[in-house]
Amino acid sequence: MLAASTKRAAARHAASFVTSRIMLTPITSMQQTRTIYGGLYKMAKKMMPRMSKTEKAALDSGTVGFDRDIFSGSPKLSALDKYSAKLTPEEQSFMDNEVNELCEMLNDYDIFHKQDLPLAAWKFIKEKGFLGMIIPKQYGGKQFTAHGHSQVITKLNTRSTT
Predict the structure, then answer these.
(1) Above 90 in pLDDT, residue 162?
(2) With bands split at pLDDT 50, 70 and 90, how would you rate the model's confidence at 72?
(3) 108: containing domain
(4) Same domain assignment for residues 59 and 38
């Protein structure tokens, strides 16, 4: 019993010594860097769950864009240039009219103390379709892009953070 615990203690001591030497010794060559990071990568790879067939199909399908490149291990930063973060004319009109009007209705002090929006604001939100911004038009929503939805939320958050 004593021998087994002594062996474990010696193994822990050796492991901590090696780890501290690796951490304290400056990495001076690419080979050392590759060895350390390669070992860490292999260890992390063993700990991660295997990719399911569905996840692999989604990544291979090309519908996930830049995410696919990141998870495949070869991101191309030039691919980000093709994404245009512009509002559609419908989204821009909504921002200029409905969102501005809702912002004028909001008073952060009152919202904080009452812990609720004014009834007029709730009515306006329901009537103007704020709750259906990402819902497809065929189901009665506005079908805004992720960027458009984000811009609406961002602007409202500048008026009231509660």
Answers:
(1) no
(2) confident
(3) 89-159
(4) no
Q: How far apart are CA 159 and CA 117, in angstroms?
A: 12
Residue 99, exposed/middle/buried by CB under 10 A (0-12, 13-18, 19+)? buried
Domain count, the chain: 3
Q: What is the pLDDT of residue 53?
A: 82
Q: Which residues neighbour 27 within 8 Å (Cβ) at sequence distance 6 or greater?
A: 33, 36
- Residue 147 per-residue DSSP state: H
Residues 67 and 95 in one domain: no
Say whether 47 sits in a helix, a strand or coil. helix
Q: How many CB atoms lie within 10 A of CB 118?
A: 14
Q: Which residues contact 39 (CB under 8 A, 6 or more apart)?
A: none
Residue predicted with more confidence, 16 or 88 = 88
Residue 126's CATH number: 1.10.540.10
Q: Are 42 and 70 found together in one domain?
A: no
DSSP per residue over 53-102, as a string?
A: HHHHHHHHHTTTTHHHHHHHT---GGGGGG------HHHHHHIIIIIHHH
Tens digit of pLDDT for each residue in 81-109? 666 678 999 999 999 999 999 999 999 99
Q: Which of 82, 98, 128 is where one domain is finished?
A: 82
